[in-house]
Each structure stands twice: as C-alpha cells, then as structure tokens.
Amino acid sequence: MGGGDAKIASLSRVQVVQGLETGIISEIYVGQGDVVEQGKKYLAIDPVCPSPGYRKALLKVIGLKAAITRLRSVAYQQPLVFDNIVKRFPMVMDQEIRIYKSEKRALNESILMLERKYLVSMRDLTIAEQLANKGRASPIEMLRLKRSADDIKLQIFERIKKLQADASSELVRLELELSQATEKLSGCAQVRGRTSMHRWGSTVENLSVGTTGASFNPQSTS
Asked: In sequence order, what are the residues at sequence separation of 6 or more whose Cβ sits closer than 8 angstroms to the Cβ of residue 88?
C-alpha cells in the first residue's frame, strides 16, 4: 500500500494523485466514493519542515539581517537603520542595538584615553619648545616628544580602522550565511505551501491512506 496515493475518478479517466512532500497525515477530508468539489482539500500533511522549523529558519534570517545592518553601519560609518522586516522583531533589533552601543562606547572610551594622552604629550612638547628657544631643552628631547604625540594620533586612527576592518570581515561571513539561510527559508516556505492537497470536481475511487498520524511518502507506490 502506498504512503499517500488516492485514485480519483474524473469524468474522463481514473488518475492517481500524489502529494509532493513527505510528512505525517494530519487531516483527511474525504472518504471512499466522496465527490471532491473544485478547489476542495482532501488531505493535509504536517511536513518534514513544520511551522516551528519554518519559524526557526525565519528567525535565523531576521537575526542575520539585523547583524548585517549593524556591521554595515560600523564598517561604512553609516547610520544604524534597520529594514522594516527586522523592525517587526523588536527583541532581535534591540539586541543588535545593544551590541552596537556597547562597541561604540568601548571605542569612544579607548579613544578618549588616547586623546588625553595626546593632549599631555602636546603640552609637554609646547613646554619643550619654549625651553628650547631659551637654550634649555635639547633637540633630541623635542624630537622624542613629537614622535610620542604622532604615535598616539596613529593609535587613534588604527583603533577606528581596526573596528571597521573587523566589521567588514564579519560582514562578508554573515552575508554568505544569510544567502544560505534565505535559501533554506525559501524551501521551508515552499513546503508550507504544498501541504494541502486539492482537486477539481472528481470522485474518490480508492484512498490508500485511512487514518491521520500515518506516514506520507510521495515516493511510495500502490
């Protein structure tokens, strides 16, 4: 006996109708000899990719979209603006906003410390220049102070660029992951759309599945 075949007697000939997805039969709407009106369901299947699986795949895509938006904002110095679809999931969006603010706060604190060191270094350099004009400071000391100030400026620049570079690298990885997750979500959506079997005006001649909860395999044959 097949896992999900039904012989339908139309006006012209008998046809064997099979579903497209493997799953568990959740509802049987017709019986032996019933006339199936046009567009009427005669079988419903809980697919291998059920609603919880679809939601999990959807949340995966939403999470990746939100993370990618955050990374683009950091990498390209753009405002943090989420897509409308991400805004429908405030918990996901809020999580990325927290990460964004945390990273930005850490960067700002780091830069602030370096800027303070730079100001001290520049103050020392100014004093050294004044002393040098009076012949009381060596050129070597002035050169050392100038190099110290330049090094601090370079550190500030490198901190910002490193954060952007790290974001760009992570962005590439997540964009690839999003492509794969979107493909999986599309597959789940197609399965969801193929789990109700319909038929035009016909009569059920032989229904080879009789109970709900039975396994349905479109590859099975009578």
From this structure: none
